[in-house]
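Chain A, query sequence.
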Amino acid sequence: MSAKVSQEEAAEHSGQLKFLSALFYACSSFILTVVNKTVLTTFRFPSYMCLGIGQMATTLVVLYVAKKSKTVQFQDFDISILFKIFPLPLLYVGNHITGLASTKKLSLPMFTVLRKFTILMTMILEVYILRKTFPKRLVYSVAAIILGAMVAASSDLAFDVEGYTFILLNDVFTAASSVYTKKKLGSEGLGKYGVLFYNALIIIIPTLLASAFTGDLHEAVTFEDWVEATFIFCFLVSCFMGFVLMYSIVLCSYYNSALTTAVVGAIKNVAVAYIGVFVGGDYLFSWTNFLGLSICMLGGLMYSYFTFNVQPSEGNNEELKIHVTDDSKGRFSTN
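Chain A, predicted structure.
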């Protein structure tokens, strides 16, 4: 199925479904970011990889039980699944590991600022993979978001090379995962639940082996706070919300575009960044950094407004929607 057909099908979904799926993703992402930050930073849990394994295992258990009870339906496993779903498992595991690692290394505000580069990367990938073009107002909004991110990052008093490397890799994996998820949902017939289940099934075993080989699993098992009820509760909430977030991403991508999913992440970051000034205890305030945050958030709000509120009208050449082109080269539209 072509990108053009997928776009036409997406247009058939009601505005309410598009908005609710986007809101569901924003809320899920916000809650998971705060919970992960609590587990990895406040409690100093040593293994972000094992936290990811817990989230994958929860996804498998929930969907398996739901399939057996006939609450949801998706294709039974056969060898063709591996070819249908590739390269999503590689992108998902990269997204999980780098995301959790960067959450541990960076303060919440800087984490959310540098995550803005996901929008630019998603836009570029949609141009070259899904053959889409974008109105100039959306491009300018992205430019404002990136400018704010660069201003904020330039004055980061807690600069961490490893943390910045993880977050930028996470941006790449997130963008690629979002674009390919949209592509697979429209062309492979796996369905929302099949994409989730088989991604988790394929990546959990190699991730577990890698955790054991690196000693990461041993550190997690011997963690001293396993006797603390508060930590156990936060860990279990993180595992469950990891499943909820993955589902919300697939759902948002199904009803919207991959780029819209990235935009919703920016909306969520408006709340996360400013709350992060007070939560986590690792944000070092500076006016330059705060100014960059504000520019970044303003760009995100502009982007969101253009995407969700401005409706195209007849005779208006500035209509704010994503166009699909058959031009094999693909380029940004400035019409």
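Confidence is low (pLDDT under 50) at residues 1-12, 312-335. The longest strand covers residues 132-133.
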